[in-house]
Each structure stands twice: as C-alpha cells, then as structure tokens.
Input
Amino acid sequence: MRTTTAWQGTGRSTALERAEIERRELRADDIAVRVDFCGVCHSDLHALHGLTGKQAAGLVPGHEFTGTVTAAGPDVTGFAVGDGVAVGTIVDSCGECAMCAAGQENFCRAGATVTYGGKDRVDGSVTLGGYSREYVLRSKFAYRLPAALDPAAAAPLMCAGITMWEPLRAYGIGPGRRVAVAGLGGLGHLGVKLAAALGAEVTVLSRTPQKAADAIRLGATDVVNTTDTADLARNANRFDLILDTIAAVHDFSPLLRLLGLEGTLSVLGAPLPTQVNLMDLVFGRKNLTSSGTGGTKWTADLLTFASAHDITADVEVLPSARVGEALDRLSRGDVRYRFVLDLADLD
Output
C-alpha cells in the first residue's frame, strides 16, 4: 500500500487531525494524483456532522480538487506524469448500465462510487477524499485540467460548477432564455457566471439586497428581493428555469410562481424533505426537478466551456492546516464564495 498525509475526522466535529492514510497500489487503469488544491463543499460539513449517512470518524472529506499526475498504470493512455488534472465527486461506476453508457455515471443504476465515504468496487475499502496530498483513482474519472484555468479557482468547478452546469445544459439554456438563481453562494455564483456566458438573461433571487452589486458583477442583469412580496409579484411568470441553490428547508411556492409556462424549478441546494402544493405546478404546467453532481459527459463539457469563457470560482485560498477555520466559517456563511485548501503544507 501507498501512504500519504491527510486531514481526517475524529467524530462529529470540524476539528480534523493530520494523519497518515493508505492509498492502494495502482491498478492497471489507475493514476496517482498529487492533490494541490481542494475545494471545501457544504456537503463536507454535513458529512463531518454525521448528516449524510457517512461514518464521521476516520472520514477524509474533499471531492473537488486539482493536482498533478505522479504515476500511471500500464493501461492508462489519456494521461502522463506531469499532466494537470481535475477530479470531482465520482471515482467509479458500474460501467454497464444505461446511465453509464450515456456518460451519466452520477445516476449509475448500481450506485456510483463517490470520492469519499464510498465503497471501492474492487476491494470494498472506504474511499478517502481530497483533503490529502495524494489520491489514486481510475483514469476514466479524472479530467485534463485546461492550462487556461487557475488550478485553485478551477477546483470548485468539479462539484459546485457541474451541479449548476448539468441542468443548464439539460434544459437548453442559451440566448433568449430567462434564468433565475436562488441563493448567491458557492453554487449560485457559478450558476450566474455559467448561465450568463451561455447568453441567457440572468436574475438573482436573494433575501440579501446587499448582494446586488456582486450579482451584477458576476453577470446577472437583475436582482429580486425574495422577502418583498411586491417584488415577487412583479416578477411572476417570468422565468424559464430557476436554479434553486438554497441549502435549507424552504417553501417552493414563491419560486414556482415566478416560472412561466412550462418553466422548471431545479432544486440543487440539498436533498431535504419537503412538501409541494401541486396547484403551483398545475397553473402554467410547471416542472419541479432536481439533479446531483455530474457524469463524465457533462463534466468534460463544462471544463471545455469554462476554459473558453475564462470561468472559475471566486475563491479564498487557505493553507490546509486552517481547514477547521474554513469549515467553521462556512457553517456561518462567512465566505465569498468558496474556500479552497492549498495542500502543499502536507509535504
């Protein structure tokens, strides 16, 4: 076995400990990646608090990272030592079902292997994530990092970015379409950038009017105050697609009323229990849907598009030794808009 250094959970706490962990020896189609930068996702926080079903003790979070290939198995043809790569939330799948054949491994019928807290399909071990100096994975689930993208700011594209990108592409967003983004955080700010770059008219839905200037800077042309009933009424039946990134239980009815005929509300912030008033769907033949992360098809597409349009996350980069600070501040919403850990201090 290979060993590397990581930040590991000890229980339901954000006080991670520096620890030596094991990585498998390379299989024929594996690559080893020196992790340089890893984004801090809200789901990392949930996992460490035991809210996602993952075992918190021993957990190594991190599922959006960039780095450099340091070794490759004999069957690997797409990467060579020294290549810059990006890795996201999925590191394996069955490869046989209809979803995998369509490049939608995120919906693998047998269940995709996630980057941390998952089960390796060969040896049954628990996957340990990117808050570490090395990661080993099947080369199929790594992506060449475009040279035009800053590695630190590109890392969040692999979770937050692809979570926004799949519904934008699935619903054919482009010029002439009206998109609203509910919540301007780690996911939402990338949703604004991507929708605007696709040519859509973009509006931010927020209960925080102070974010208006940032919303315009990111590419929005309008901001709707969701605490103002008059503002909501003025924008009724306006949007084709709403990307709902709010990571808390909330009422969908005000958002559904903002959709036009056959408009779609895509709930992306968190898979939380909810109730829906069906009459809000009936009037206007509206759609309620959701999505999670992305498969190889749309992830590769996202990186190509991001490179062509110079799109990355707005990040605050911290030495990985400050991971506890990052997690605590994230829990308070004290970040604009994504923390990224620099793993060089694990050498």
Observations:
- Residues 48 and 56 are 5 Å apart (CA to CA).
- The chain has a mean pLDDT of 96.
- The first helix runs from residue 42 to 48.
